[in-house]
User: Fold these one by one.
Assistant:
Number 1:
Amino acid sequence: MRELVIVSGKGGTGKTSLTAAFASLAKENVLCDADVDAADLHLLLQPEIRRRTDFMGGSKAVIDLKRCTSCGLCRDLCRFEAIDAEYKVDGIACEGCGVCVDLCPAQAIDFPIQKCGEWFISETRLGPMVHARLGIGEENSGKLVSCIRQEARKLVEEQGLELIITDGPPGIGCPVIASIGGATALVLVVEPTVSGLHDMIRVIDLAGHFKAPCLLCVNKFDLNIEMTEQLEEVARQRKMRAVGRIPFDPMFTKAMIVGKNVLEYKKDSQIARAVQEAWDGIINSPAMNSYGIRSM
Amino acid sequence: MIISIASGKGGTGKTTVATNLAVSLGDSCMLLDCDVEEPNAHLFLQPQIEKSETVATFIPIVDEGLCTFCRKCADICRFRAIAVLGKKVLVFPELCHSCGGCLVVCPDKAITAGGRELGVVEWGQGAGVALIQGRLRVGEAMSPPLIKKVRAYADTRRTVIIDAPPGTSCPVIAAMRGVNFVLLVTEPTPFGLHDLQLAVEAVRLLDIPCGLVINRCDMGDDQVRDYARQERLPILLEIPFDRKIAEAYSRGRMIVEEMPEWQEKFRELFGQIKLEILADIWRRERQ
Ligand code: SF4
Ligand code: SF4
């Protein structure tokens, strides 16, 4: 079993569109949408949900004013300024540390566990998919990511499949860290811009912490050829393989509007060939191949 | 006045709008880059960094000489960041949420305050704009405390523009809470619309007035506009796709540098935001 995680550092570089296109080229794979904060892969794959599970995250403090004696201790203890002068807990600010709950002398604080989101196991035309929806403003995105990655692993094993393709979140924080630990390889989808370069370097550094090998795929490479070459040069210095260059093409948007990936939208196009080339580069890379997977 | 520039989806042009708006308003405003995982505003403003401060968050340090291994710290910790194994106390700094529970409950004063580095806050001046940016340490998972720190340095007598991180979870909330207005930058595509809906939910949860900027407004369909109409979200600016803008952006150039006539549009945008804020105050007073 191998897992390919698509990340980018900077958001909106085309991760999800490429993930969906790669899914057309891979066989025997499970898809996993780890961008639980703003998941979009389902818009291209129209999954049929087979199983829906509540995601229970941390707890939040609730003060029972009937029991509360207004001693003020909880307000002093709370480091998150979550308790106001009327002893009402602000659910958004509450970190769920439970310090007030444990130390309230009147035992006036309840600590109900919260539903922080939902996750789904679905069927799509390109294979099974695990995805999720984190509640608005919730913490615990990392926990939810770990949870669905684990489910994707189970699914791959149950169904005797080979590969997980995971659409990762942007940034380098908690959900990204949860997305890349234990991945076989990361594909960095980067645009040739100063921001793309800056953000890519931070992701490479992060991947280094987890010893996850990285591959570079430049999207919209023709917007700035010099910058594309610079990205590839940085990749070389960091011993990463550059696997592909995808040209800028409004077809990505057109395909998205009709709910398809670019390969389904137009099988025989310059884009389709570039995506195929990138995919071959990924699947034949030493990072993916050292385990014996073959190009399909 | 504080305006947060946000978007559910990444890469819709938050930083473009934030930097161009700030530059168009000039030295009356201050830009806070709260996208601390991937701060990009500095790439466009090219500031001289004048000052930098390392920011740390509380983690416990245990003096095993004083510790009686009573386990009270491990019992109160909801994040499994501290464990007692026989005659040893283990602290897992990266799991610690800095709640201070262990510090309070330790009966033997064996715990003192240590720190885990979150990242740095940097101050600079570039393109006529004062910039404060947070830069999360690579490997650090928790960005909200650093975002709060950056915001704490805002000079609220000035117009403060916040470049928020993407998404809809806790980091975005930290960058939007308590501001006067949220400007949501979106693109007219199915992904743009879907993530915009989530972002609007977040803004409504915080009960802040908001408006939209549609970037690459000619590159998709009409669903975002239909949604805006239904939800009565004002569209305050539309920026067409222009290969020239995209190429300039790729080199770190702002729209207003490439096409100075846009300064006026960004100033108008600011005027509209002020009107929206006033209208919102008026609506609330009437209720
Ligand atoms: S659980 Fe922690 S964060 Fe929440 S109100 Fe109590 S002390 Fe504050
Ligand atoms: S500060 Fe809170 S989260 Fe950190 S170790 Fe102590 S009890 Fe646990």
Note: The two ends of chain B are 23 Å apart (CA to CA).
Number 2:
Amino acid sequence: MSTTAHGESAPVADRGPRPAPSPAAKKIGGVLGWFDDRTGLAKPVRYLMHKVFPDHWSFMLGEVAMYSMVVALLTGVFLTLWFIPSAGHVEYTGSYIGLNGIHMSEAYKSTLDISFDVKGGLLIRQIHHWSANFFIAAVGLHACRIFFTGAFRKPREINWVIGTILLLLACIEGFAGYSLPDDLLSGTGIRVMEGFVQSAPIIGSYLAYFIFDGAFPGEAIIPRLYIAHVLLVPAILVGLVAAHLVLVVVTKHTQYPGPGRTNENVVGFPVMPVYAAKAGGFFFIVFGIIALTSALVTINPVWMYGPYDPSLVTADSQPDWYMGFADGALRLLPGWLEFSALGYTLSLNLALGSIVLLPVAFGLMGAYPFLEAWVTGDKREHHLLDRPRNTPTRTAIGMAAITCYLVMFLAAGNDLMAIKMGLSINDITRVLQVLFFLGPIIAFIVTKRICLSLQRQDRELALHGRESGRIVATPDGRFYEAHEPIDKYTMWNLVDYDAPKPLELTSGEDARGVKSPTAKSEKRRAAWSRFYFSDRIPPVTPGEVAAAHHDGHGHEAIEGGHREAVGSGSHSAGH
Amino acid sequence: MKALAARRRHPAALIALLVVGLITVGGLFAVLSPMQRAQAGAPQVSAQDVEAGKKLFLANCATCHGANGQGTKTGPSLAGVGAASVDFQVGTGRMPLAAPGVQAQRTEPVYFNQTQIDQMAAYVTSLGPGPGIPDEKYASGQGGNIARGGEIFRVNCAMCHNFAGSGGALTRGKYAPPLKDIEGKHIYEAMVTGPQSMPVFNETNLDPEAKRDVIAYLHFLDKNENPGGHALGNFGPVGDGFFFWLIAIPVMLGAAVWLGKKAA
Ligand code: HEM
């Protein structure tokens, strides 16, 4: 369809060279030309300006992530002006009477000062913390969008891996920030982190001593976390985000299937001026929502928690939600998983929920594109997205993983659930322990069934059109509901997808009966392929549509076993 | 004077001296000891009060606690629990217990007026001495050191009642209730009697001044408007997380969908 630009604001397809800049642009060109002569940037910039972005709300999740990161960076710089990353002892004399005369660390005192004695400080603190939350949530939701639409497939696997690292780093950055104010909760969080480190077999306690420069808590951890939080991790984050964006430009954007949208083009709006205006506006919307939230709702009321004291703990000691799954895993793991032998203690009850869980979860996530590509054997490039229903097994795997995550996430709040729902915390934990294993399986089966029936429904729609609600009486006295044909655009969405068949298992022997060296791995691969693809609803072919439309009585045969019998007369669409 | 001097040597004099000495020391102790200090303002009880209390008790409490408060299968013995315990349990509506459950709960409205509660307290005290009604001077929390109270609260109470007194879960469906807007007297009594899973904080653990400071802190939290906006119930990060995912994120997604629909 449309592969050329229709004036300024019509969607365009991004294919190859661009028209030369307009005369108006040449006027400003004097200054820009000066820069161009010295940097040679004009060409890449022009390329960027004309880059085409397709339109869909789910493509904006990444933008939410980026904008909230920018907000966090800006407000973070503001906080550094007053925050003192030191465990040095002082007495509080600031304006919050609830802590007047209490002894505390300088870090905690300076956080209180930011909250109560620096003009606008509390708002900036809250913006910083809420934007951090939005950042991490948006990264996670963005990753879900990529996963469920298959945008991670070739050639975008590298960006998926970068994204996975970004998600992990974002959580670490948030955790480091949460630990800085040295209030009762952040200290408790650090203590848990120390436990994680110590649970590493054999080297654990040495590692913990190394990190804390001696015994917990010591004086070193706050300055160290500070450097990680304001310098090290942000630098890597920004670098990776930059690489991520460059790759988005290089590989071009994916798009949902639709008329005129092919694997070879991108249909959308050029960056200048349409998309830039929209994105600029969206930045302010994101910033606005963050600022509004921060102005209305408290986050991390450090003055309530009081200064950290290793001997204390409060009810409702939880990490921020993005670390909740790890905390929940700890709450689910039974205590009998701790063993000791030969003077060493192996705390599987801790290790499984931390130093095993984190690498395994993020490792599987990062490896997924490669695992799926191995199963499908698909080496093609993909620029058209999948509708989640059209890849039932992948969608089901995603939902199973999310269920697993949710169970751990909810377990982190088991105490509050107990209170709010009037249940016993022991029962809740037991149920969640069972759900940790059963939940993903149920989610997998249910999701897959739902996807398959949605696909069947699509098939139905493509073949017979929309139910019009009009009942027609035939001369011979029969009644049927008239079906209306669907328009081409909708049709496109319904039929334009791949439904691979499972790989056929070869005999594993060549013509002379010699066993192939890869026979075993081929067999495994075929099994996985069956797991992925044996339940499939093939897309409607043009032939089938034609048959359904012109030979009203023939279609039942075409559909074969794919659907249950349809009441006679229901096939009269389009006559 | 001579006569007195002569009697000084009388054998009974020694005993008399001992008695006087003991009474003085005992009296002094009674005046100075923290427990007595805290109860200095306690209402005077008369024999009629005890009698009236006994009637009320037989009518309302004896089914569970026994006709003489000796305890039954459905209620513990009340000998020695003290007036403070009765005032707390009945004054917060926990007693008379409506139905057996995991834990007696604060209920509104309270069944008895203060006079009747005092009468039952007097009767229960007559079964055996225990902690009395606290002195208003400490129980009101007035003049207490708020910041010190906060520190004591975080050391002794926050692990069950949460850092802001929002309440917390204990094992098997038991819970430490929220401590919002609770009369100073009842806070004090809870500390000295330790209802159910709550430990007793006697006068050596927390002296009356410390208790007063805790009460002052809790009352400060009641009055204190949260400077950062809505406090989300002060449940810590889980509360924040629920708000975030149920309200803030949908708003953000709504904005994205809205803008995404507005194809330029
Ligand atoms: C985008 C990544 C970032 C995330 C996710 C993040 C997250 C956090 C969080 C959750 C806190 C605890 C805030 C509180 O409630 O008190 C925090 C504190 C802090 N952050 Fe960040 N932050 C980020 C970037 C930065 C940057 C780039 C800087 C400085 C250049 C910075 C400086 C600080 C400082 C000084 C504090 C401690 C002050 C305080 O706690 O009030 N942050 N951060």
Note: DSSP finds 13 helices and two strands in chain B.
Number 3:
Amino acid sequence: MADLTSNFIGIKSPNPFWLASAPPTDKKYNVERAFEAGWGGVVWKTLGAEGPPIVNVSGPRYGAIWGADRRLLGLNNIELITDRPLEVNLQEIKEVKRKWKDRAMIISLMVPCDEDSWKAILKQIEDTEADGVELNFGCPHGMAERGMGSAVGQVPEYIEMVTRWVKQYSRMPCIVKLTPNVTSILPPAMAAKRGGADAVSLINTIKSITNVDLDAFSPFPMIDGKGSHGGYCGPAVKPIALNMVAEIARHEETRGLPISGIGGVTTWHDAAEFLALGAGNVQVCSAAMTYGFKIVQEMISGLSQYLDEKEMALSDLIGRAVPNFVEWQHLNLNYVTKAVINQDDCIKCGRCYAACEDTSHQAIAMSEDRTFTVKDDECVACNLCVNVCPVDNCITMQTLPKGALDERTGRKVGNYANWTTHPNNPGAVAAE
Amino acid sequence: MSNSPLTPGIVAARLPAAAYQSNFADHEPALDRHEARVAADRCYFCHDAPCMTACPTSIDVPLFIRQIATGTPEAAAKTIFDQNILGGMCARVCPTEQLCEEACVREAAEGKPVEIGRLQRFATDTVMVKGVHPFKRAKPTGKSVAVVGAGPAGLACAHRLAMKGHDVVVYDARPKAGGLNEYGIASYKSTNDFAAREVEWLLKIGGIRIETGKALGRDLALADLQKSHDAVFLGIGLGGVNALRAPGEDMKNVRNAVDFISELRQTSDKSTLPIGRDVVVIGGGMTAVDAAVQSKLLGAENVTIVYRRGQEKMSASGYEQDHAAQAGVRIIIHAAPVAVQDGAVEFAYTEEWPKGLTVTSQTFTLKADQVFKAIGQTLSGAPEGLKLEGGKIAVDGHGRSSVPGIWAGGDCASGGDDLTVTAVKEGRDAAEDIHASLMA
Ligand SMILES: Cc1cc2nc3c(=O)[nH]c(=O)nc-3n(C[C@H](O)[C@H](O)[C@H](O)COP(=O)(O)OP(=O)(O)OC[C@H]3O[C@@H](n4cnc5c(N)ncnc54)[C@H](O)[C@@H]3O)c2cc1C
Ligand SMILES: Cc1cc2nc3c(=O)[nH]c(=O)nc-3n(C[C@H](O)[C@H](O)[C@H](O)COP(=O)(O)O)c2cc1C
Ligand code: SF4
Ligand code: SF4
Ligand code: SF4
């Protein structure tokens, strides 16, 4: 078993799997059961300022989309930050941390955007013995309308300002949680860095409407005939989150800023992908909400098997794929692959044919007896057939070796060359 | 030689050579990767999963299936072996339709359970084929335990003890280890010498010595074992066979089904095995079904199972009964043997009353060159001095017998169904208790 012990900005946990700030972490009962199940740490459900607690709706909070067999792919929520009294949360955080010293305990915070409010809350959490704070600049619904959450997260200056206050009034490591509801994730990440953040975490949820009730003519979740947008999360958001994590990991200004990867992590494989793209650990919400705390056991066994097979330490994996995340213009235009159908695995459904014939490059032939074969002289290697084929690994992409003839172009496969030097590129620089 | 199913008498080679090959091949072939992914995807990862509760060894089914779904069948295998070191054999022989798969929520939802048994085989095969043994021994404790019987109970017990650092000697009366895995289970469930390969793989843990050809009561005395070891576990199975108590029972064409099966399991060239043209099997359990089906596979023309009670009372599951019917075996219920004659058996119909079974005066006769008795096994050769309960060695919930220092489990011990998986559980749990008491 590989050693999964994680050290994220000095915060140690037995594994890199933390529960994200959300209902799974909103009380002692949950968090203790999560620790029993094996979670390495938690970010406690976001706390607000002292005063009358937040009020949630008492109708449905969640909407969802499903894949085949009703597999939950995306979850949308209109829940606010904690609706429990501050003192109760603080007391419980302290009790749990005392009892579970080896686990990471992070407190998520969201208070009005003024110095006094932040100063006050930081003082109040001081003696909980928590390992760090996470600033929730991400929540896209409800709190944003009150000038908090993503309303702060969308304005880099505010991020920088608040982060500065936090670093000024607290000794705790500070993680800034970013909202994906921006056109570019880089300015918020840079602002957090300037403000002195020890790390960023992302993504929080994405503004969304999952579905519409076509009898009541209202978005869902529907509260008394009306709906408002919610925050989207779960497997469906993983690609968006991965890209944002990777952008921060590779940009020269933000490179090296520790990242806690969040968004759709469901299996060990998802987690490993986040780590490879630069996340130092991952946080999970929807997978736990769908399958329960026990899900972490598969993440632990899978990641440790993978690391063992690769003979890598956890730290070797972190950021390993970042150097290979490049801009389009640096991709090798002389790299040629062709789709190949394994006839033994093919079940002759014809989906690859429909996809290629109707919407791509007419590069798959169908015989009288439903044998499907790729026409090498038409195949542009787009990968659509691979993606629509119901049989895993039935269609694969085979790389043409250097010097081989590409029957489509009639040219031989040449050396690496990208767009920056391509003759069709008006701005091309002559190759040296 | 050109025997056929129609050749009278008990003869070998009734079928063309190729037929034996296919008849005794794996009756439920292994899932391939794609099939396993699709099958695994159907699991809902239920909370406090009913399948897990229904498994006598409490394998964490949702976890191992998820590990298959996420491309780590090796981790899945570890999850299985943690609870059941003979998970490979159990995947092949468990009556899943009465255990985990019966409890699966998708059985309730769609009448199509997740294929737990086959997925279990997929995972365990992945690791065993590579010869990887995923456990290490703890530091030696200097304690030694004698295990009598190298069946599933004894092997599971020995492995768990060895893992805890104890030295284990396993004694078995027969020439090969494995118990009924080697000598009893239908051959199409355990192909390619799987039972022997599994024993070899299990022994990789180290710290276990197997001594075959050593029978308790003949070559070994319990008192000596108690002296030379710190604890003794008995997993001697059920060596005796119930009698028909009908005249003609001792005719030479009447045989114990378990002996027939054991010979069949030990014969690699099945075409050399003589079988009757008309075979009658008396009994209603797994042994009866296995004897009947394998008679048919050897080329018998007519094979009939005769059971004295109703179908619902047969201990062979509905799935097993269907399997027999598909193989062309006829099942007659509510009939008991009256007399075995030369070339035939006479039966009388029975009636079931709340108070018991009565035999009516209505009789019929079945042609029979060969008769197999499969009306249940009994404990034989249990050492003196141990309390018995219902004909088996009385044990408590931890597998402790009435004599301190002696544990028992599997078919020979009281409680539990007589199944491979139950034997594994009882062997494993007794090992835990032995360990606890040796280290106390
Ligand atoms: C024909 C048949 C088919 C079956 N099919 C299935 C099936 O498909 N699925 C299923 O779950 N179960 C099946 N069973 C039941 C299953 O095989 C048993 O429940 C299981 O093997 C019991 O394990 P055990 O370790 O208690 O005993 P056994 O497997 O019987 O092993 C006992 C061992 O002890 C040895 N032994 C006995 N006496 C002595 C002695 N005095 N000294 C030394 N060694 C001794 C024996 O040689 C043997 O190796 C079947 C049983 C039979 C008979
Ligand atoms: C019901 C619900 C409530 C949430 N509440 C919070 C919150 O209070 N604070 C916060 O920072 N994020 C909150 N989130 C966002 C999650 O922490 C996480 O960033 C997001 O769900 C993406 O991860 P996932 O795809 O693993 O669910 C909430 C998410 C859900 C589903
Ligand atoms: S989509 Fe896949 S399985 Fe279907 S015809 Fe094409 S190659 Fe065969
Ligand atoms: S051991 Fe048998 S009962 Fe248990 S899960 Fe496996 S196949 Fe099912
Ligand atoms: S009951 Fe069926 S669906 Fe549920 S965990 Fe078990 S195998 Fe999976």
Note: Residues 40 and 66 of chain B are 7 Å apart (CA to CA).
